Design the sequence.
């Protein structure tokens, strides 16, 4: 019998340090190492000042580590130019933010289609895929509406549709329920679970432990270090970390 295929490492960090210039330099991350496998739904949890935002910028290719290795969808970020990193960001990463970052002057359809703007996809195909993504998040009936005609929960669903429209290797959700009421927050968390069940790999950055414990895996960051990691449920027994 052939061996079962091991899950792909979508995100790999090895001994990642980050410091900012000063006298003395301010070190924010101290040797962070972790893997996120394809198909995982992971919460990165930690209090304010734990280094979550700095780590998000590095994982999102918006910043480079001072030292250590970062691999995203098989790409070693240290070997890529800024232009090549931008291409990886456009094709392999999807972003969801607390503030939504939708354009009020554009419909939901066009806001989502903009998620494919830098992938070389033609306009008609971008809009077709955007319509499919909105259907996927339960907003197929709102494609022609503008963000200012929607509730906060609906706007976040549009933002999530924009993040997943290109089927990226990894979706990064930064405090995705931070601007929502309790009911809308539950709805968004349920949606993330549904998208994960469909195959999306999602890393949620949050300070909310209640949200974090609803996910299969929790990584706790404190003072720039991984304090605990419940581990991947997808990692076969015997696989080396």
Sequence:
């Amino acid at each position: 019998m052939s061996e079962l295929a091991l899950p792909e490492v979508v995100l790999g960090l090895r001994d990642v340090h980050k410091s900012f210039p000063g006298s003395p330099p301010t070190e924010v991350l101290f040797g962070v190492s972790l893997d996120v496998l394809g198909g995982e739904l992971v919460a990165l949890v930690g209090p304010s000042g734990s280094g979550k935002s700095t780590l998000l910028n590095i994982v999102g290719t918006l910043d480079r580590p001072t030292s250590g290795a970062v691999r995203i969808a098989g790409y070693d970020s240290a070997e890529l130019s800024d232009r090549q990193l931008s291409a990886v960001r456009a094709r392999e990463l999807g972003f969801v933010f607390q503030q939504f970052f939708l354009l009020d002057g554009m419909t939901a359809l066009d806001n989502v289609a903009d998620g494919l703007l830098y992938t070389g996809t033609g306009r008609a195909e971008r809009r077709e895929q955007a319509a499919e993504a909105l259907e996927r998040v339960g907003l197929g009936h709102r494609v022609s509406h503008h963000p200012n005609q929607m509730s906060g929960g609906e706007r976040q669903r549009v933002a999530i549709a924009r993040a997943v429209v290109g089927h990226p290797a990894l979706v990064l959700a930064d405090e995705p329920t931070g601007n929502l009421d309790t009911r809308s927050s539950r709805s968004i968390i349920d949606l993330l679970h549904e998208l994960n069940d469909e195959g999306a790999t999602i890393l949620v950055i949050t300070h909310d432990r209640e949200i974090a414990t609803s996910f299969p895996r929790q990584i706790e960051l404190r003072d720039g270090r991984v304090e605990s990691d419940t581990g991947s449920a997808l990692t076969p027994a015997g696989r080396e970390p």
The chain is about 30% helix and 25% strand. The two ends are 25 Å apart (CA to CA).
